[in-house]
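#random but structural
TW: two for the price of one
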Amino acid sequence: MSEERKSLNFIEQIIEEDLANGMSKNDLRFRFPPEPNGYLHIGHTKAIGISFGLGEHYNAPVNLRFDDTNPAKEEQEYVDAIKKDVAWLGYKWDKELFSSDYFQQLYDWAVQLIKDGKAYVDSQSSEAMAEQKGTPTQPGVDGPYRNRTIEENLDLFERMKNGEFDEGEHILRAKIDMQHPNMLMRDPIIYRIMKKSHHRTGNDWCIYPMYDWTHGESDYIEQISHSLCSLEFKPHRELYDWFLDQVVDPDKLRPKQREFARLNLSYTIMSKRKLLKLVEQNIVSGWDDPRMPTISGLRRRGYTPEALRKFVETVGVAKRDNVIDVSLLEFCIREDLNKRAPRVMAVLDPVKLVITNYPEDKVEWLDAENNQEDESAGFRKVPFSRELYIEKDDFKEEASNKFFRLKLGGEVRLKNAYIIKAESVVKDADGNIVEIHCTYSEDTSKKVKGTLHWVSIQHAVKAEVREYDRLFMDEAPDAHQDKDFMEFLNPNSLKIIEAFVEPSLKEAKVGDRFQFQRLGYFNVDDDASEEKLVFNKTVGLRDSWAKAKPKPQQPQQNNKPNNQQPKRKAINVIQQLGKKYTNYPEDKQAKVKAEILELAKEVSYDELEPLFNTAVKKVGTRIAATLVLGVLLENGQERNEEINAFLEKALEDKNELLVAEAKQIN
């Protein structure tokens, strides 16, 4: 939770009401209760952030409790991974606990339920029990074993515990009401036989408690004040309370379950079962594959804990489920890495450039700024020589006036170096350009429109770059009843290329993050070694998917001709978006900003320059203009007096949002 907290969300309101009604602040205790049957994913960051955020806000302890009641699916590997993820996000738990710590107490309470006539051993098949349970609109009926004697139930339950029966032969059920409107209250299962070794208790037990029985009682044992769950547990609250009614001491704190909307993300699978399928079928390299939405996968891809926490905070706490656009997550990591990632030069799709009037044996070490966002980042030296690599896309033999990069007869500035002019090209037998011949000028004060990144061939370091895209092509891959989610896999979610990077990156360590100028944000992968550099693409500088989304077709009405209005110019749409920018809440601002940045690709400098004269009071429009300017500069637009004057005025403004955007490109 940030220091500048927003208005109270509904969970905080509940807590404040409890405190106002006499609960002591010292009684506040929260917990994060993952089941160790898989790795945590981005959806869990919300649950983690809510519980630990409340702990930080109220200075209250937060337990990390593993609900480990299913030995068939749980492993120590998952326990270790979960602890690593929570710690990496920056949270500290008070106690590390396990539901298996309470197996004896849970068993003893179950025995007491039997003695009180509130539990019985059922010996039917699962099919028979399901049939007797009824439907949401049809009440259930009592089974043939519901009225066994207390003595018979105690005997059978003890023999279940002693391993005398096979799996599925008997279960223990709570005796509540088979006609209850809430199907979860129709004699739910408390214990089942599972003859499997547990990752902590080994073979001590062959019966294991069900989640609903374990969860609330564990909260009570730990004296959790507020048990916070996702919305799917709302129907379980009645059962949670019924189970507590059977064991609570009136002199002890009674936990209160409350539910919030889970985090759903577009183009993403959130089911641990389905994520496990991707791992088991080798669709991905493991739980930490950078395409996975797991916290370990995001960490390996280059995401920062600060970006994930900011994302969760921006999404907020809601009472209704909704789907968050994955572009908001990508926006948060761009914003964070823009401030912290050193700028370096790398060429991913190289073509050779020869400066014919530069001495063959000459090498210059030029100063390059590490990060204009961080004054303390300083400068580094980059080597410049006669033969360089540039990106193939940065050169065209012929191009329009809107192409600010290099073309025959045209001039551009090489980042941190000289101005060059393309004179001729060399082609292979198939007509492909293999060399661009240029001349350079030492007059760096000359005004040119484009700036390109480059790498000296003589000093270039080879690196493997893994360019990741979204794992699924569909916005909701598991929402189609007639199709399997695997049908929507993106066949191009991973592209491995050989790139060339500047020599300063020889010293890069695993996990180090960089901005490859004009290309995106990258980090050093776990597979990297002293012999081989491997980089993962974390995220591009811009949202490349916004344009790719198909626009919904508008049906024609009354069979009238479709007289479409001419498409509005991008710059006009941007002006409209900018007008109310400062009035929007933070999450809406993020979405509008992403839209402006995408539209900026269609704007020319000549269209933007008139906005430099926008009145001071129209802050939103000036912010929009600053965002567009940043895109143009990244795409090669050369700075001029008008740009410098506009930025200087923005930096002196009283509006913090405008100043922040101006700082990013100044």
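TW: number two ↓
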Amino acid sequence: MQAKHQSLIVIGSGPVGIRAARMLAGQNPSHRVTVFGEEPHAPYNRVQLSLYLSGEVGRDSINIGERSETSTNTQEQWVNSRIVEIDRRQKRVVDENHKSWPYDILVIATGSTAVVPDIPGIDLENVLRFRTLADTESLLERKEQSHGVFVIGSGPLGIEAALGMKTRENRVFLQARNYLLDPSLDKRAQEILADSLETAGVHVLQGDPITHIKGQDGKVIGVQLESGKLIECDTVVYCTGVTPNTGLAKDAGLETARGILVNDVMQTSDPAIYAVGECAEHGGQTYGVVAPGFEQVSPMSTHVSGFAMPYKGSPGNIQLKFGSQPSALIGDVNNPHARSYVYANRLKGIYRKLFVINQRLIGYIHIGRWDELPSLQEFLTTEQKIKTRSLLQFDKSGNLWRDSAQKHVKDQPDDYIVCLCESVTRGTLTSAMEGGNRTMESLCGATKAGVTCGSCKPLLAQLLDAPAPNLVMRHYKPIYWFSVVAIVLMAMTVLFKPIGIGESAQVTWQLEKLWFDNFWKQVSGYTLLALSLLAAGLSIRKRWKKLNVGHLDDWRYVHSIIGVIALAVLMIHTGLRMGNNLNFVLMAVFLAATLTGSLVGVFMARNHHWTDLKLRQHRTWWSRVHYTLLWMLPALLGYHIFAVYYF
């Protein structure tokens, strides 16, 4: 058992360092814990910097404590000063102001540093990294000024940076030299994830390495690719991995490899010094994410108290959330002995993969929403067996338990864990809500749920009956009004009386030619056919990967313009007549395609104003009907032309 009245020092004021300090202070009221952090900010949650960059949370939401040189709490003291030396012999640390601080137990939680890629031009102005709060503030400033953003690195942080930097006005490019998110994703998963990113406004460039960053007057003006293509941009963000901060440990003579070497209780080669988080190396493994660091704090603090709770390593879980497409790799997704089950639907933007040994779930991958995730996590944690019938059903439908209704989070028992990072149960959340915490911000603040990685926030939203915000696309205002105009023109076509010869003195003979002269009927007819084929280009653009010219929202804009022009030409060509037999079918299909397309345009243009939780499903359904009708038009128009000329 360790002696009382110990002086404990934690180097590092990131999430893992703060958790270590609080857990150590909570174990013994006589401990005095001092935390050193070199950043000029109050401790903050680095995990949520991506949400801060994207505007989903405010600056105050990422704070995890107050920094002060003197503290009213005699248990804890947080000091804004960089530690420059560890004197193991005298058991003291020295800060940058040459002040010595004695310790009985020292915990190193110095994290890691962003790797700077070896690319010519990386030192140009407006080439930024995404790692710290200061980095994020710089990116937020560039976000409002930049017209073109190029992100180097397609791991979780790179994807989050690209999504966070996207605005309605700018263009964002993401370089995926080898893979998206993680190499564990197969080709289908990569394609579905790329589709989702494109829909969110991020243009993915695959397999085309950077040769150099081009500059002018010391500033970025573009990125040159190996293919010879120049991507014009005024901001470059690199997220190319991290390296553990081991400098202090090496200088102090501690054993290091890639990270600071630790045993199963997170002790270094010096029994009085522990290392946790991204700077630590356990069993030959370092981790570049926060969650394993949280797991390492428990065995470390337990051992400081005189007990043993060995650390056995952590899964390399990856969680990513953007818009309505959360994605994750959870558990052991690289076990060669596991049997895998895959369900993929590219049209729906869904990819799901299970890893099973002896009918027990050991890991899973998913792209897109999955209502069964809470139950899936429960089976992973409790190691319950999955029925063979459920696995067969998964192969067909992508769901394991569709036949047995899945519980809403409100129907889960009180001890059901909603937030895995902070072990917050449904009962705790319900009590906090009954106490008046009825907003996402207040509920997270009161319970600490959702403040670490944020992946449980969809469940918190279910508890609160809170709708999720939707994406904003480019040209949403003109697309909205073109859609409205199309609906008005369609209504005129259906409701107005057909135009006849000489029925109005205001309709001159020259104007009547448009309706009744054979030559002009052919001109309007072939124009209508050409416009219908052009309108189909959007569908081809979304599904043919090689046709990646321009932003998808720009194509939608052109598509809406073509739709209105085509409808006006249709009114001219038909004289507002609905026709008979197959001509009537052609007219009905054209008008139905116009109506469904216009509804899709209205839905998408107002996406950021309407927060109906089922909006996406409505839009998806109308889109499918629209494209089905649209692809019928060339065939019907072709038959119509054939019938006119040959019969």
